[in-house]
UniProtKB/TrEMBL annotation:
It comes from Rubrivivax benzoatilyticus. The keyword Plastid does not apply. Residues 220-321 form the Peptidase M20 dimerisation domain. This is Diaminopropionate ammonia-lyase. One of its GO terms (molecular function) is diaminopropionate ammonia-lyase activity. The chain holds residues 390 to 807 of 807 of the full protein. It is an enzyme of class 4 (lyase).
Amino acid sequence: EVLAAQQERLVRDGIAADRLVARLAEHAEIGATPDGGVCRLALSDADRAGRDRLVAWMHELGLTVQVDRIGNVFGTRAGSEPGAAPVMTGSHLDTVATGGRYDGVYGVMAALEAVRRLDELAVTTRRPIVVAAFTNEEGVRYQPDMMGSLVHAGGLALPDALDTVGIDGTRLGDELVRIGYAGDLAVGAIRPHAFVELHIEQGPVLEAEGLAIGAVADLQGISWQEITVEGQSNHAGTTPMRLRRDAGAAAAEIVVFVRELALRFGEPQVATVGRLRLHPDLINVIPARATLTVDLRHTDEAKLQQAEAELAAFLERLAAERGLTVKSRRLARFEPVVFDQRLVRTIEAAAAARGYGVRRMTSGAGHDAQMMARIGPAAMIFVPSAGGLSHNPREHTPAEQLAQGANVLLDVLRRLAG
Ligand code: HGY
Ligand code: MN
Ligand code: MN
Ligand code: MN
């Protein structure tokens, strides 16, 4: 009944919104952009500053800080049974270039607040609790995304990750050394008993249904590829249409095909051409080359493969009909993931115990939890995103909802760490 009383008190004396919001606001100053957003590309100076701030806060909380060889940062709160596998929570600090103030960092800051609360309430857990911040979750500068957690889970060999060349031509391993986060902890060294990630939903569902918490049961598959179309540059004025090998026009047809494929497949199929560059990109020169990226996602692996196959067939036809060379390079490919159903139920129960509206749901976005699910039980807690907006400087979640998510995380950590 001691645990029950502690539980009761913990439920009552949860995490206050003000301190969580203050920590998030302070961290959002790092890499702040004029439009109110944040830009902390993986392994950039802003990422370093964001990591340094986290490490300082971890030390303030008395956590034992370790950095592994891909730069993942771990802060451990000791448990009464040191040899017990830890309960791990966390997310990422890197952002897309036009990022918001919550994607990733919210899960890490809430984890710090949960640790602080456990200390203030003098709660000792049997298992250690580890707060993690994974390297390069966004995959914007270096593909694939979720890279730090993928290496941790054994899905990508460390040398290959270190040799990754970014969209800016830099080598990931060099940047890791430059920012001082090429740690010495072996990758994958910390094998968690369970992993729970708190994250903003980045979509419209919870807000539309007026619910405070999402218990994420599964996560859709992701396919990223870069397509290069090679044609021939020529004079825009003198070249008759029938003689053109116009890489730009072909790229436009690919963009339309990809969108129509998603509409034809119907929800939850999504498809995005996020990057599109023409060369030489001049007003009176027929483009010789087009380079574009395609992001395809679906909850069903067979459907995702079908989408990839239909796109590949379209590219072949286009190349033949237009006299072009079309190549595709895979940048990332993750199958759909089903999270640990017991953990999902624990999240639902913790939310319900606080009287929060909660529902099971699928994550449209990729997350570190999907990689951690490869090596042990993993699940996620979502809070609503205002207007469903994310990967946008106007990303927002009201303080009350941030605190609700943090309190569910606190309760779940308490239950798992025993
Ligand atoms: O693209 C994604 O869903 C991940 O956040 N990088
Ligand atoms: Mn994220
Ligand atoms: Mn993101
Ligand atoms: Mn993500």
